[in-house]
Amino acid sequence: MDRLLVLVRHGQSEWNLKNLFTGWKDPGLTEKGIEEARLAGRRLKEHGLGFDMAYTSVLVRAQHTLDLMLEEMGISDLPITRDQALNERDYGDLSGLNKDDARAEWGEEQVHIWRRSYDVPPPGGESLKDTLARTLPYYVTDILPQVMRGKRVLVAAHGNSLRSIVKVLENLSDEEIVGREIPTGIPIVYRLAADTTVAEKTDYAD
Ligand SMILES: O=C(O)[C@@H](CO)OP(=O)(O)O
């Protein structure tokens, strides 16, 4: 049985381009982001992958990325589930601030801790651990059962919501996940074993 799970981070957003903390704010894709999403779809198609269902967040950059990928693959009738559980980590009070301005105000090290530590939340926001506490139950109760039934599943979401799922899938320690970045528009293709662990992983980077 083909237990296929593909994770894709949305293409570049307007706020990625402007270097702003984004979180639950809802900017659209840039021209480059649109192209990245289309390219992701073409890569999946070139590798002969098809899908039975898709999941995304309630944020427009991830939904638009999914739509563009499906368009490139020529898929128009896929069931799509949109859920807040897959939203980006909530950046709290940092949302909308420029990342360089934040470094100037609070220092490089503090901003890095807010951005990449596992369990230190930014003021008023979610740590990666907090994010995992909502993405993982959703993955386990909604996404994983479909994969285990042999449904081919595509997930379009966000840098940190995907990092939290990747941490569990790849069994990464709290230290290891700190160094893991998810590039925009590069499909991560997993095939799961019967025990739900990862049997095979490929990045469709080129
Ligand atoms: O701003 C955000 O919401 C995220 C993703 O773009 O940024 P960071 O790289 O700091 O996790």
From TrEMBL:
Substrate binds at residues 9-16, 22-23, 61, 88-91, 99, 115-116, 159-160. The keyword Isomerase applies. SUPFAM superfamilies: Phosphoglycerate mutase-like (SSF53254). Keywords: Gluconeogenesis, Glycolysis, Isomerase. It is an enzyme of class 5 (isomerase). This is 2,3-bisphosphoglycerate-dependent phosphoglycerate mutase. GO terms for biological process: gluconeogenesis; glycolytic process. The keyword Oxidoreductase does not apply. Homodimer. Pathway: Carbohydrate degradation; glycolysis; pyruvate from D-glyceraldehyde 3-phosphate: step 3/5. Pfam families: His_Phos_1. The record marks 158 as: Transition state stabilizer. Its EC number is 5.4.2.11. PROSITE patterns: PG_MUTASE. The active site is at residues 10, 88. Belongs to the phosphoglycerate mutase family. BPG-dependent PGAM subfamily. SMART domains: PGAM (SM00855).
